[in-house]
Structure formats: structure tokens, C-alpha cells
Write a structure and sequence with these properties.
The protein is mainly alpha-helical and 173 residues long. It contains six helices and no strands. It has helices at residues 3-20, 26-37, 40-67, 78-93, 99-113, 118-145. α4 runs parallel beside α6 (118-145).
Length: 173
């Protein structure tokens, strides 16, 4: 197991704990991470994952709900829901992590911490999320590279009507 995989594993455990015990404070979370990882860079990685998921959770949950056909988020197993959140965060917000790595790491977490069917479920949701994200990026790039709409200059009216003639002088009193 790589060290970053271990960092993801601890981040998942923290996310699960926070969902089950929302009253846990940041100090308790930090102690949990530091007791299990010890290496400062790895602790920082796990903290960044947890913080990122929590910061973006409403949007991540919304995106997961959009692609999870016939599955409401609150009906998913808590561990699967948090694996999806973690994988989605890495897919959407961690530019240094290739999509294949983010999905594969989520699958490994599902195999280790959830049921036999969970890895297929997680894979399907994250694949759809990646495809939806790719399609959205393509549309944004297309819109950004499209030439601006050119508005032709106004043309004079070809038939302005009868000529009113020269202006009339104003009579002065």
C-alpha cells in the first residue's frame, strides 16, 4: 500500500466518523489523523482531502445525485457515500491526480471497506461523474473559443419617406 493510499484511507475514516458523529471538533480530527499517519506530509495530505471534501460537499453531493440514477444519496450506504465524496473531490478538484488514479483509489477503498458489489457501484457513479465533467469542460472550452457574435453595422433605411424639405426659420417676435 502506498503512503498516499494510506492517507486516503485515513481521510475516509475521518469523513465516516464526522458523518456519524457530527459533533467531533477539529482537534479530535487532527489527533486521529496524526496518531495514524505520523509523517507530516502524509498528515497534511489527509487533512487536505478531508477539508476539501467538507468544503465542497454540497456541490459534490449534488453532482453525485445527478449521475446516480435511481439512487438517492441518503439511501446509499454511509461508507459508499463517503468513498464517492472522496473520489469525486479528487476527480473534480485535485489537478495533480489523474482521473484513473482517483477512480482506482476509490475502488480499492470500496473493496476494502464495503461490500463485494460496492466497487462496481462506486465505479459506475465515478465514471458517469467523470464523463459529465468532461462533457461540461468541452462545452466550456467550446464556448470560450467560439468567435464573438459580430453585429453588422446599422444600414440606412433605403426609403426614408418624403423629403421634409429645408428647415423653416423660426419667427422671432
Amino acid at each position: 500500500m502506498t503512503r498516499r493510499t494510506r492517507g486516503r484511507e485515513i481521510a475516509l475514516q475521518v469523513l465516516y466518523q464526522l458523518e456519524q458523529n457530527p459533533g467531533q471538533g477539529p482537534a479530535e480530527v487532527a489527533r486521529f489523523i496524526e496518531r495514524r499517519l505520523r509523517e507530516p506530509k502524509l498528515c497534511a495530505f489527509a487533512h487536505a482531502l478531508v477539508g476539501g471534501v467538507l468544503e465542497h460537499q454540497p456541490r459534490i453531493d449534488s453532482l453525485i445525485s445527478e449521475v446516480a440514477e435511481n439512487w438517492r444519496l441518503d439511501r446509499m450506504a454511509a461508507i459508499d457515500r463517503n468513498i464517492l465524496r472522496l473520489g469525486a473531490f479528487e476527480l473534480l478538484h485535485c489537478e495533480g491526480v489523474p482521473a484513473k488514479v482517483a477512480i482506482n483509489e476509490a475502488l480499492e477503498l470500496a473493496k476494502r471497506y464495503s461490500t463485494a458489489q460496492s466497487s462496481r457501484f462506486v465505479n459506475g457513479i465515478l465514471d458517469r461523474l467523470q464523463a459529465a465533467g468532461s462533457a461540461r469542460l468541452a462545452k466550456e472550452k467550446e464556448a470560450a473559443s467560439a468567435p464573438a457574435e459580430v453585429v453588422p453595422p446599422a444600414t440606412p433605411d433605403p426609403d426614408p419617406g418624403p423629403d421634409p424639405g429645408p428647415p423653416h426659420p423660426v419667427d422671432e417676435p
